[in-house]
Description:
Layout: H1 2-21, H2 26-37, H3 47-51, H4 53-69, H5 74-106, H6 111-121, H7 126-139, H8 147-173, H9 180-211, H10 216-236, H11 245-259, H12 261-288, H13 292-320, H14 328-337, H15 343-348, H16 351-354, H17 360-389, H18 395-401
Amino acid sequence: xxxxxxxxxxxxxxxxxxxxxxxxxxxxxxxxxxxxxxxxxxxxxxxxxxxxxxxxxxxxxxxxxxxxxxxxxxxxxxxxxxxxxxxxxxxxxxxxxxxxxxxxxxxxxxxxxxxxxxxxxxxxxxxxxxxxxxxxxxxxxxxxxxxxxxxxxxxxxxxxxxxxxxxxxxxxxxxxxxxxxxxxxxxxxxxxxxxxxxxxxxxxxxxxxxxxxxxxxxxxxxxxxxxxxxxxxxxxxxxxxxxxxxxxxxxxxxxxxxxxxxxxxxxxxxxxxxxxxxxxxxxxxxxxxxxxxxxxxxxxxxxxxxxxxxxxxxxxxxxxxxxxxxxxxxxxxxxxxxxxxxxxxxxxxxxxxxxxxxxxxxxxxxxxxxxxxxxxxxxxxxxxxxxxxxxxxxxxxxxxxxxxxx
Length: 406
């Protein structure tokens, strides 16, 4: 496994550099490295690292979400609260249901099979979106209207909705008696529980950090350990009650920043250094999950379904932004920012096939294809549209309002 890690690091750094020189997002190079050295291409990765790939990717995702929490101020969150809630559910719901319906027409699926596909595809990727939004926050792009915070908050909850409804369709297919109303009620409950656990964890950590003299490096290790345990708890009790663990992770960062801005800034700086390594693990290992051959099998029909789904999602974003003070360009930027897919599709795309669900091969193929199409194109579009569609906030004003993000 050590050799595989060396390949991930060296090739990840190299391709990150090359893509940056080409004025493309560096993580696209890392994704490409993962595809090339993964089991479906040159097969250079040891089976041991592939076996623990999901854990590595989770730790990397936790790292970036902690950074996200440490970059969200209460003032920014107050600007976008209700709109972020709408963005967290409306676009994904419209996309998922649209794909469920068109799958009955184009693929001959039942509506339940289509729903399984729809809510695998109908989730955006925080792993792709969050680093961009943190970068824009640091640069002051769109921060006068809280746009990066809006997208950060909305996209982090989006997955909770998608995965919960996906699980409901799986249960319906299996013939289990499922109370759909109760499943829907579980969504806000899981969000509230995630926030409560994150809030309590953040307050306890602050008390520990205040009572004991601990170096910032060790504080980061404690922070990461607690965050990992929260996501572990989520998995342990998920059969009894759902907890939005990743939202809890973000809440820890938010509470630390809110109660101790100076500490939050120092911890964020430390996490930004860890992210250099975590980013390579995340995107190279996500790339290694992509089976190009399976994606090709879905063909033009897969591309058509993904395209219709994205159009439906875009409509959902536009609906969610009704009543806001965003101008046309800023709304278009939000639409673009809600297109990339990667982590959820890589994590659960193969589940229907493993469960023996009819059409599981097609579902997997379209899931993989959605990563190949939307992750690179979405990332490039976010990167370039931010420069054209977002205004740069005055740094002097920004320092007065949100000193912790500069």
